[in-house]
Design goal:
With about 325 residues, the chain is an alpha/beta fold. The chain has three domains: about 5-90, Arc Repressor Mutant, subunit A (Orthogonal Bundle); about 95-165 and about 270-320, D-Maltodextrin-Binding Protein, domain 2, CATH 3.40.190; about 170-260, D-Maltodextrin-Binding Protein, domain 2. It contains ten helices and twelve strands. The chain has helices spanning about 10-20, 25-30, 35-50, 65-90, 110-120, 135-140, 205-215, 230-235, 280-300, 310-320, and strands at about 55, 60, 95-105, 125-130, 145-150, 160-165, 170-175, 195, 220-225, 240-245, 255-260, 270-275. The strands form four sheets. The protein has a five-stranded mixed beta sheet with strand order 4-3-5-12-6. Strands 10-7-11 form a three-stranded antiparallel beta sheet. Helix 5 (about 110-120) links the parallel strand 3 (about 95-105) and strand 4 (about 125-130). Helix 2 (about 25-30) crosses helix 3. The chain is rod-shaped.
Length: about 325
């Protein structure tokens, strides 16, 4: 016997004949002719060198060797059916793995989407990397992750971006601040206050400084702090004022107050960034598809800005286009 001559088709035909009990019924189920099925059975018997079927009262049943072949065939075909199911789940985004890199502030918002997604797809392994903007830009340049989350995206020469959430930047002060009860405050009235800022390169800081420059304003004393949490605690303790993402503030923040500064909030958006030169895993595409369909269920409607369906369409176009023939990388 030369086992290498066995094929999946031969095993499929044999299993069908055993289950049907006749060649004619197996041929019908397989959409083959009876002579074709008979020929396949003959090849199989010659390959194994043993009789495989016996006629008992008009029904074909496996011989002793045929019974063992039937068991082995079911096991082999069953394993490949499992593989087919696995691949279907993988292509459907129900299995697999992907990684997301996000800047520190995004850790306050992304779990609102990741939590429901992980419950819906528990067999997908998600790795999350969190750091400051410089660290995440390094990961982006090294192509270390599938998805990136920025509020101020890097150069999109090699990437696509899709907004998914408004990220308003507001001025915050301690609850007892003298101007806390005012209906409107000019930024010029606050320039001599101490301002607590993130490190240079932080998107929040860049957007705030750009807004000040547009207004022709310059801050007085400043104090640099390493994290949004430290700034929030510092403001509550009376160390100074700050501009923070509204998402950083807990739902109940009795120690803080948002100041009604003219021209604020500064409008920005959280965006998913995908590199054009990296093919996304099925799981990562599935996560974006989940966001496109279910984002409104996961976040407050006033923050919603769902451009993920557009991003997915652009990804389809990019992956279907030969390298070097792509179009404008921006999502419009």
């Amino acid at each position: 016997m030369n086992i290498r001559h066995l094929t999946f088709r031969l095993l499929q035909v044999y299993v069908a004949v055993v289950r049907a009990g006749s060649i004619s019924e197996a041929a019908r189920r397989l959409h083959l002719t009876q002579p074709t099925v008979s020929q396949q059975l003959k090849r199989l018997a010659e390959t194994l060198g043993e009789p495989l079927l016996e006629n008992r009262q008009g029904r074909l049943v496996p011989s002793e060797a045929g019974t063992e072949l039937y068991r082995a065939s079911r096991e082999v075909l069953g394993r490949f059916d499992d593989l087919d199911d696995y691949l279907a789940a993988l292509r459907g985004g129900e299995r697999g793995r992907f990684s997301i890199a996000l800047v520190n502030t995004a850790q306050y918002v992304l779990p609102r989407l990741l939590g429901p997604y992980s419950q819906a797809f528990p067999e997908v392994e998600v790795t999350v990397h969190i750091g400051n903007r410089r660290q995440m830009l390094t990961r982006f340049e090294r192509q270390e992750d599938d998805l990136y989350v920025f509020s101020h995206p890097p150069s999109l020469a090699h990437a696509l971006a899709g907004r998914f959430l408004r990220n308003p930047l507001v001025a915050v002060a301690p609850r007892g601040h003298p101007l806390a009860g005012r209906e409107r405050i000019a930024m010029g009235e606050l320039l001599e206050e101490r301002w607590l800022l993130r490190e240079p390169g932080s998107a929040t800081r860049m957007l705030f400084e750009s807004w000040l420059q547009e207004q022709g304003l310059t801050l007085g004393p400043t104090l640099q702090m390493a994290s949004n949490e430290a700034i929030r605690v510092g403001v509550a303790s009376g160390m100074g004022l700050a501009v923070l993402s509204e998402h950083v503030l807990p739902p109940q923040h009795p120690e803080l107050v948002i100041l009604p500064v003219e021209g604020l909030p500064i409008e920005s958006h959280w965006q998913f960034i995908v590199r054009r030169d990296r093919r996304l895993s099925h799981a990562a595409l599935g996560f974006l598809g989940f966001g496109a369909q279910r984002l409104a269920e996961c976040v407050e409607s006033r923050f919603l800005s769902n451009e993920l369906p557009v991003l997915l369409r652009r990804l389809d176009e990019v992956q279907a286009t030969p390298p070097g023939l792509g179009s404008d990388p921006q999502v419009s």
